[in-house]
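User: Here's a protein and a ligand (1,3-dihydroxyacetonephosphate). What would the complex look like?
Assistant: Let me lay out the input and then the predicted complex.
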Amino acid sequence: MLVTLQEIIAMAEEGGYCIPSFNVYNMETVMGVIDAAEELNAPVILQLYPRLINQECGYYVSPVALAAAQKAKVPVCLHLDHAAGKEEVFKCLRWGFTGIMQDGSSLSFEENVKLTRGAVEMCGVLGIGVEGEIGHVGSVNDEAMEEFTDPQEAKAFVEQTGVCCLAVLVGNAHGHYKKTPNLDIPRVKAIREACGVPLVLHGGTGIPEDQVKAAVAAGVRKFNIGTDVCCSFAEGTKESVNDPNHHLAVDMFMKKPIQTVKEMAMGKIRMTGAEGKA
Ligand code: 13P
């Protein structure tokens, strides 16, 4: 069942848990995530990087993800992740997406507000909520982490943009962490109290379960997982290649990657408390 970003976040808010949000890349990653969500009766978000949207591949993957969301027995939001500009937002609205992240976090505060408020107004016409970001969540390879999100700045950003949820920088980063992350949980709580909207944690791959649970207790309602989707897919593909009896027919060959993505997704659904909440 296809739902909007604000609807699925409201479910998590009401139940005090978090929606796992998986970056998907192709039909098989979509199938693995949806299989996991249906088996564990959990609401989930399928999200696509703008890179895919801006290449031809998004033209094919988006309808696949949309069809899966519509057919699913559980609530599913189809979300655009990290849109830098308006072009990919327009495309995704046309392609039936039900959630948009407008990411102006590397701009100045004023420019970020301007860009994000524009997206909120445009998407609002279609009844679609927008995720914003304040405090730039970079990559694990960045030299230095930018300053963590400031609660008062987050409050001003939410007031001036009208976003329905907010991505924050609290010790998280995209990719494989070089050492175990140490999330600033009191800051998560302070941001949440100051800005009053559900928070989003990017860089979910490799954050230990106890920290994920503490972040959820402090107000995180959307938890992004990208790298683990890729790794689990690659793992299943290797298993297929190394299986001496593997089938050459591509649909059969892909059964293992779908299964390994499913197992990874089930772990994240349990970790975020979304199991049984659909
Ligand atoms: P990881 O790739 O670190 O899991 O982060 C995904 C993400 O935050 C997508 O926006």
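Summary: The longest strand covers residues 76-83.
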